[in-house]
Amino acid sequence: xxxxxxxxxxxxxxxxxxKMIQEKKKRKSAGGITxxxxxxxxxxxxxxxxxxxIGIVLTLIFETFLFFDAVSIKEFFTAKKxxxxxxxxxxxGILPLVMGTIKVxxxxxxxxxxxxxxxxxxxxxxxxxxxxxxxxxxxxxxxGIPTIVYGFFALTFVTPILxxxxxxxxxxxxxxxxxxxxxxxxxxxASLSEDAMTSVPNAMREGALALGSxxxxxxxxVVLPAAVSGIIASIVLGISRAIGETMIVAVAGGSTPNLEWxxxxxxxxxxxxxxxxxxxxxxxxxxxxxxxYAVGMTLFVFTLVMNLLAQYITRRFREEY
Length: 321
Known about the structure:
It contains 12 helices and 2 strands, in the order H-H-E-E-H-H-H-H-H-H-H-H-H-H.
């Protein structure tokens, strides 16, 4: 009886071992199939992104050529008036739209760069872990607010306050959206700059403190120069974001393109013009319709140059630790 029991136990153990071996082979086979398939799936995902970008660029280029069949390149880049909707004396000089974009971007940079850098210095050099855990999420929430909300904030809150200070300020102006765009891009500059400053080794800070430097001197004379590539890149990316902003200037900036350096009057940026035409002010196939592609191509080149500049600065001035 004991021999039968031992034999039964051995058969059971043998069966269990065989079953485990078969299950392992199945898992190995399934894992092998997954390993073979996953590279193709990941490549497809990457290819979709690349092909989408190429499709957008090719569409811009093709439609822009159709626009330049009706309007000369010289007029587009040198004429000082932008009157596309005029039936008798239409003009397609993009300079007023470029000026409106520059005015808003400069104001935004004046607001965002000092506040963003000051915030980054505080978070990197002075804030406690508790303060950092509170402030960083708040900055991220600020960066995630829809731009249409910023636009109505500029129109209904910032503009009335500014009109109390500047009576000549019009309801639609360059100053209000510029300030609000500066507030919007501040978290980007602050967060990226803080990351760059945090990556500076503590040994550099400790060495400067050992030589008698104050904490502020360490931040300004040691940490900032060491993190300059990341800081400049964050500023350039923030400015690029400001150049491409649409809803804030469309809501609070107005729709009057002009070349004057007047911050109190109505303006129109390149993005705001694209929104205006896209709402149905021009029929398909007209010169006005194709003009949005020419303006979009110009805007694309602007932002592309800014992004390439940020990448160059990052590589050129990167510190190796």
